[in-house]
Design brief:
- The chain has 28 helices and no strands.
- The chain starts with 6 loop residues before the first helix and ends in a 5-residue tail after the last helix.
- The chain is mainly alpha-helical.
- The longest helix has 23 residues.
- It is 66% helix and 0% strand.
- The N terminus is likely disordered.
- α14 packs across α16.
Length: 556
């Protein structure tokens, strides 16, 4: 046809009116690119737009429904329409939780969904599980913990949880076509709800029943048992193990900054409620000093944006849920947990109405262990309101100044009445083992003003403490170090201090309370850090004279 047209028409474009205008590029045109990494653009191909019919938003939903879901007039039954609407809301909830990872927001959204769709708790569980089957392992664990949090707070019941799981399992044969690892995913979910005590072991029989004893059903049960027994590792169990190691090191070093860094490096924000649980659980079996350290650690973890408030609250509620397990090892667990909660409320880690609104009523019923917790917490909060006790002092831990004053008082009483048993018991009640070396140091310094009687009393105190185990070798050795460092100042008021101290050192080493090479080690340390003070040197000269006189040998 083109050949039949006149020459002047052959050059005219025959493209339709909607076509793009062609551009005649020179054949040798050079194209410039920005950046050495850039690739040249592919040849431009003009694609004709294809008009598609407008999509009907109801069409997708129509595919998800069966004929029996529709009334004779073709419209969905109200119940089916409500279910579809709930599915949309749950899908939005899943997307929001994966994006924001805020447990508090997810709990609030879920409650709103349940409020809009009453008596559909089991369907909610089914949808939460089905919509997360294609997510990552971390996301699936996160939603498993969301479901158990809802169960513990009684937003859904254990029966709702069981029914929702059974509804999902009834479609297992179809779901496995899209999710080949579905038995592993459901098995790990089952293990989490079993270990969180939201379901009992008989749910495994339900799994086999609803799947008619199929191979897939047996695989789900086998996977769940492997996770529960520890043959397969759940992420939460690794977090627990790592957290125990972090806490052991923290209790020994008291280095809060280091512990916060370690918790941050766990990189498991969806399991931070387990960090709270582990911190409090380990502290319940320790002394007041460790309880105070735990309170400080939790405060630092939040202030440095490592742990969110909703995870802290979730950890406390989960402990209350299992308080009957805690009392097996710590009979006073309800009362101690109340002390922790009061401190956490004071530190801004829990809301001020936590005891009234944050805790499910079923966990604090009168006459139960939870009721004991609530009673103790109310008592503490009442005293706080009356100004009788500050939450900062809930553990009775003393400042350095307070400790020094208390040690001065008990030592002056001891040198007055010679009651060694009462003195050491009072020292033990302070629950400050890291400060005992100050008592050793102070007792020796006070004895130098009392001549022979003072020497006798301080030897009796140190000997009895070592024999009963109330004083350790390290505590005595550290105390002796402190005295030696203060000898130059002490000698100003007590000129005989070097001689008196040398006599005490001889008796200490003679009775083998500390290793015999202690003096040599101390001199080595002093030599590395600089010259030894002449007054300190006088102590060793006196000690050498005593050794020569007693045994005919020198300490050199």
């Amino acid at each position: 046809l083109e050949a039949r047209q006149p020459p002047e028409l052959q050059s005219a474009s025959q493209a339709p009116s909607w076509a793009l205008e062609s551009t005649n590029w020179p054949e040798s045109r050079e194209v410039s690119f920005q950046g050495s990494w850039a690739l040249p653009p592919p040849p431009v191909a003009v694609e004709l737009p294809v008009e598609h019919p407008a999509e009907d938003p109801e069409e997708d939903k129509e595919e998800l429904t069966s004929p029996k879901d529709r009334a004779p007039d073709g419209h969905l039954y109200p119940a089916v329409e409500a279910r579809n609407k709930m599915d949309d809301e749950v899908r939005m909830l899943v997307d929001d939780y994966v994006g924001e990872r805020s447990l508090g927001v997810a709990l609030a959204q879920t409650r709103l969904v349940l409020e809009n769709h009453p008596k559909m708790e089991a369907h909610l569980v089914k949808r939460l599980l089905s919509y997360t089957l294609d997510k990552t392992e971390r996301d699936r664990e996160m939603f498993a913990k969301l479901i158990t949090s809802l169960c513990i707070r009684e937003d859904i019941s254990s029966e709702d949880l069981r029914q929702g799981l059974i509804m999902l399992l009834s479609q297992l044969a179809e779901l496995v076509l899209d999710v080949p690892d579905i038995t592993l995913h459901i098995g790990s979910f089952l293990a989490i709800v079993l270990m969180d005590h939201c379901l009992t072991d008989d749910v495994l029989d339900d799994v086999l029943a609803v799947t008619s004893g199929s191979e897939l059903g047996h695989q789900v049960v086998a996977c769940a048992k492997c996770f529960v027994s520890g043959q397969k590792a759940l992420g939460v169990e690794q977090v627990k193990a790592n957290m125990s190691s972090i806490l052991e090191e923290f209790m020994a070093s008291s280095d809060t900054h280091e512990a916060v860094d370690y918790v941050h490096d766990l990189n498991a924000p969806h399991f931070h409620h387990e960090v709270v649980k582990r911190t409090l659980t380990l502290s319940l079996n320790m002394r007041k000093r460790e309880c105070e350290l735990s309170s400080q650690l939790l405060k630092s973890l939040h202030s440095e944006s490592v742990i969110a408030l909703d995870q802290i609250e979730d950890g406390v509620i989960r402990l209350l849920f299992r308080v009957h397990d805690l009392v097996l090892d710590t009979p006073s667990a309800p009362q101690l947990l109340a002390c922790f909660v009061q401190r956490m409320m004071y530190d801004g880690l829990l809301p001020q109405d936590f005891h009234a609104l944050g805790v499910p009523a079923s966990l604090v019923v009168d006459g139960t262990l939870g009721g004991e917790f609530a009673t103790k917490l109310s008592f503490l909060l009442k005293d706080e309101a009356l100004g009788k006790q500050s939450p900062e002092q809930v553990w009775g831990v003393h400042s350095i100044g307070e400790l020094k004053n208390k040690i001065d008082t008990l030592l002056h009483e001891y040198f007055a009445n010679g009651a060694v048993v009462e003195c050491l018991e009072a020292l033990t009640e302070l629950e400050e083992p890291h400060f005992v070396h100050e008592m050793v140091c102070k007792s020796i310094m006070l004895s130098m003003d009392l001549a022979d009687r003072g020497q006798h009393l301080v030897m009796h105190l140190l000997r009895h403490g070592c024999e009963t185990g109330q004083l350790s070798v390290n505590q005595v050795a550290n105390g002796l170090d402190r005295v030696l460092e203060r000898i130059p100042q002490l000698a100003i008021d007590v000129p005989q201090a070097p001689k008196l101290y040398a006599q005490l050192l001889y008796r200490v080493f003679e009775e083998s309370w500390v290793p015999a090479d202690y003096l040599a080690e101390f001199l080595n340390r002093k030599g590395q850090s600089g010259s030894v003070d002449p007054v300190e040197q006088a102590v060793f000269m006196e000690l050498e004279q005593i050794l020569i006189a007693k045994k005919g040998k020198s300490i050199a």
